């Protein structure tokens, strides 16, 4: 019987090939031989540490300059983390306390790991980077090559416990058929880079390292499954069919609609002017989510209204006057800390003062941002909508709508908190549209941190409870005659997109690269088929059954 391992699907696509299990650590023999490095003066040991760190950082910078987009950003961030002054200070303190240099580095890194883990969210995901930096610094100190992935000549399925940015960044999609890791969630670096490279990817696949060595694997990046030693002929046939189907998708040019002509607005999620321009060049009906906070991650102080207006205008402009852009007001806090807005030291930041809640104590922050959006809308003439994140009450929706309308902007709110879905009729009486953020709606419905890979089976938008809240929200939209979008990652899953349309969602917003596969899939099903898929998904006991039941109803 073929062993099948389940993980979290990250990048769709089928791949079949021999497994290459990578080990990314320094050899224990070299570490033992190095011992305490022979330093008698802690300052000499610190100088050796500095030289090793600089060499590691330089390696990251070199790779960054040869990469682009998200990959370059990830590598530059790793270089910054390697040379972090706080980390160096911790190493120096340990050295002065008499620790040998390798132990001093180890303890300093573990101290940072504890801090990052405690912060949760995106910071916790940087733990892999920290440990990778430690391995590299140790390798440099003991005189070994830095650990990393060494690819063979032929194509492989790369398997690892976890992959560091530097391992994934240089990957050649011609040699790496798929990526499978035991750790990591959908927002880990492995996931980000696999998405950018278009390599089928499954993360959180517990047990794959032990099962894969010396075997061939069939990876299904849409279903999140890894089959060990499947029948080669059948596996190849499935991969060929998948490759053909994906090639066809590349030609989809919109507009979004089902096979029987039911229109569905397919929109892009953007983060800045560059992603907006790239999205505008493709077959998208506009922007369903502009994550404004991502423009200011590196700012210590709040940008002025004029600065903000300039940034927003650059995002609005490429969509002209015909394609609307939904600007989300700052969703700072929790996994997106912003120096000038976030409340530090919260016990539980995901349930703390994030998103719209920042305006409870600093109303001016929201007002200034809305002024800037209005100025950008006026300058560009763009059809500009605004929406607030993390809305939990009808009063919040009303206050936001008033502030937006005073500035001539079309107001809406996100449905990310279950209370907003439960009160969708009343919320819709206040605003002109709703946009369901399935990432957070799933997190809050299932009480499971969206970045925790151990809980990936719970943080799955196919959970029947989540689908039921989507259905309630869409039904309220139908009653009010107002649009209901989905802008979480769920919208980018072509199968789930059909289910969402069947539930009554009127627009889907996703990474621009996902628009073609989603549009092409929707074009193969009728609205009635979408409805049938949504019924079986809602009735299924768990996400895997929901996927299977919905998939079984796709036309062959
Ligand atoms: C969501 O929660 O689904 C969403 C789109 O917002 P973000 O992922 O930025 O929190
Ligand atoms: Mg959210």
Explain how this protein is built:
The protein is an alpha/beta fold and 556 residues long. 48% of the residues lie in helices and 14% in strands. It contains 24 helices and 16 strands. The strands form 2 sheets. Strands 1-8-7-3-4-5-6-2 form an 8-stranded mixed sheet. An 8-stranded parallel barrel has the order 9-10-11-12-13-14-15-16, surrounded by 6 helices. Strand 10, helix 13 and strand 11 (324-328) form a beta-alpha-beta unit. The protein is globular. The model has no long low-confidence stretch (mean pLDDT 90). Residues 289, 291, 331, 416, 437-440, 487-488 line the site of phosphoenolpyruvate.
Considering the chains and any ligands shown, give keywords for the structure.
globular; eight-stranded parallel β-barrel; 24 helices; binds phosphoenolpyruvate; alpha/beta; binds magnesium ion; 556 residues; 48% helix
Task: Describe the SSE topology.
Blueprint: E1 3-6, E2 8-11, E3 14-21, H1 28-34, H2 42-66, H3 69-82, H4 85-96, H5 101-119, H6 121-125, H7 127-142, E4 156-160, H8 165-169, E5 176-181, H9 189-197, E6 201-203, H10 208-212, E7 216-220, E8 225-228, H11 232-249, E9 265-270, H12 273-280, E10 286-291, H13 305-316, E11 324-328, H14 358-361, H15 363-380, E12 384-388, H16 394-405, E13 410-415, H17 418-422, H18 424-428, E14 433-436, H19 438-446, H20 464-480, E15 484-486, H21 494-503, E16 507-511, H22 515-522, H23 527-539, H24 543-552
Parallel strand pairs: 3-4, 4-5, 5-6, 9-10, 9-16, 10-11, 11-12, 12-13, 13-14, 14-15, 15-16
Antiparallel strand pairs: 1-8, 2-6, 3-7, 7-8
């Amino acid at each position: 019987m073929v062993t099948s391992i389940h993980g979290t699907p990250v990048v769709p696509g089928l791949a079949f090939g021999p497994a290459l299990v990578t080990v990314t650590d320094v050899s224990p023999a070299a570490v033992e031989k190095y011992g305490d490095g022979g330093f008698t003066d802690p300052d000499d040991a610190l100088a050796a540490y500095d030289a090793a760190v600089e060499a590691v950082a330089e390696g990251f910078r070199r790779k960054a300059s040869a990469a682009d987009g998200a990959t370059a950003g990830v590598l530059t961030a790793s270089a910054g983390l390697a040379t972090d002054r706080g980390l160096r200070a911790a190493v120096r303190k340990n050295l002065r306390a008499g620790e040998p240099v390798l132990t001093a580095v180890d303890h300093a890194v573990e101290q940072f790991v504890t801090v990052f883990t405690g912060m949760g969210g995106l910071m916790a995901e940087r733990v892999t980077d920290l440990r990778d930096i430690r391995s590299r610094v140790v390798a440099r100190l003991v005189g070994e090559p830095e650990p990393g992935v060494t690819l063979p000549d032929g194509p492989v399925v790369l398997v690892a416990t976890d992959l560091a940015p530097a391992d994934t960044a240089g990957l050649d999609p011609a040699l790496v058929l798929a990526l499978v890791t035991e750790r990591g969630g959908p927002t880990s670096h492995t996931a980000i880079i696999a998405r950018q490279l278009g390599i089928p990817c499954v993360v959180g696949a517990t047990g794959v390292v032990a099962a894969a060595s010396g075997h061939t694997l069939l990876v299904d990046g849409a279903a999140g499954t890894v089959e060990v030693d499947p029948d080669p002929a059948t596996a190849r046939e499935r991969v060929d069919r998948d490759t053909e189907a994906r090639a066809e998708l590349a030609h989809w040019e919109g507009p979004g609609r089902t096979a029987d002509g039911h229109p569905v607005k397919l929109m892009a999620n953007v983060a800045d002017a560059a992603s907006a321009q790239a999205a505008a060049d493709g077959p998208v009906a506009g922007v369903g989510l502009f994550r404004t906070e991502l423009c200011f991650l590196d700012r210590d102080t709040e940008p002025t209204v004029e600065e903000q207006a300039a940034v927003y205008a650059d995002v609005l402009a490429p969509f002209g006057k015909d394609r609307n852009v939904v600007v989300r007001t700052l969703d700072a806090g929790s996994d997106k800390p912003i120096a000038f807005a976030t409340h530090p030291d919260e016990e539980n930041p995901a349930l703390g003062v994030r998103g719209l809640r920042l305006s409870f104590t600093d109303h001016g922050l929201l007002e200034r941002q809305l002024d800037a959006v209005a100025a950008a809308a006026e300058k560009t003439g763009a059809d500009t909508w605004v929406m607030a994140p993390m809305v939990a009450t009808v009063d919040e929706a009303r206050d936001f709508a008033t502030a937006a309308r005073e500035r001539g902007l079309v107001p809406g709110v996100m449905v990310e908190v279950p209370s907003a879905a439960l009160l969708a009729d009343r919320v819709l009486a206040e605003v002109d549209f709703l946009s369901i953020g399935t990432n957070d709606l799933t997190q809050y419905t299932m009480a499971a941190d969206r970045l925790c890979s151990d809980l990936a089976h719970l943080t799955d938008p196919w959970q029947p409870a989540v689908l039921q809240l989507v259905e309630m929200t869409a039904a309220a939209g139908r009653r009010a005659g107002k649009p209901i979008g989905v802008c979480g990652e769920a919208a980018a899953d072509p199968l789930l997109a059909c289910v969402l349309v069947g539930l009554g969602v009127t627009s889907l917003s996703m990474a621009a690269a996902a628009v073609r596969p989603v549009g092409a899939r929707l074009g193969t099903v009728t609205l009635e088929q979408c409805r049938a898929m949504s019924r079986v998904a809602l009735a299924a006991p768990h996400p895997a059954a929901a996927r299977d039941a919905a998939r079984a109803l796709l036309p062959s």
